[in-house]
Amino acid sequence: VGKTTSTAKLAAAFATKHGASHLGLITLDAYRVAAHEQLRAYGRILGVPVHVVRDSEDLRRTLVDLRDKHMILIDTVGMSQRDRMVAEQAAMLTRAGEVKRLLLLNAGSRGDTLDDVVRAYSGEELAGCILTKVDEAPSLGPALDAVVRHGLLLAYVANGQRVPEDLHLPNRSYL
């Protein structure tokens, strides 16, 4: 879906506007080969260290260490919406304190798949969503339908791999 790339896009946009010293980066993805290395590469470019977190206690400690930051972005573990670990990861983020989540939705996915994803990842702390891979979608209808029907705030639209250029605020005309 593009979680790590979207995290890098958000980080680069924030660092450009507010300065890298005000940004914290955390990855929970110590499972996929080189997943945290990809975010570390972006972190090096931005001048922001990336903290690899493995459990709830480690996350709480890291968030305390980064409490002076204006924004902390957490790159989560990529998993199927049917994976039992989805609920565990959401609970870990909830226990960490005031964490707001953005759900990434692949704009090229089928409507029923998007519905499954939204149901699996929904919750009170879900602040909105980002439509990713808009440039690859044959039609935006199913994705926009899911956003509207589930009452999600569309925070950003991503339409390519360039960091941060391919992350945009939603634009009615474009969509």
Give a brief rundown of this model.
The protein is of the alpha/beta class. Helices cover 39% and strands 19% of the residues. The strands form two sheets. A four-stranded mixed β-sheet has the order 4-5-6-7.
Features:
three-stranded parallel beta sheet; four-stranded mixed beta sheet; globular; 175 residues; single chain; alpha/beta
What does the model show?
This protein is an alpha/beta fold. The chain is 39% helix and 19% strand. The chain contains 6 helices and 7 strands; from the N terminus they run H-E-H-E-H-E-H-E-H-E-H-E-E. The protein has helices at 3-18, 35-46, 56-65, 85-95, 111-121, 141-149, and strands spanning 23-27, 50-52, 71-75, 101-106, 126-132, 154-158, 167-168. The strands form 2 sheets. A 4-stranded mixed beta sheet has the order 4-5-6-7. It is globular, with a radius of gyration of 16 Å.
Radius of gyration: 16 Å
Q: What's the helix-strand series?
A: HEHEHEHEHEHEE
| Number of DSSP-assigned strands | 7
Low-confidence regions: none
What does the overall shape look like?
Answer: globular
What share of residues are in beta strands? 15-25%
Task: Give the termini distance in whole angstroms.
Answer: 19 Å
The count of helical stretches stands at: 6
Class per helix and strand makeup: alpha/beta
- Main sheet strand line-up: 4-5-6-7
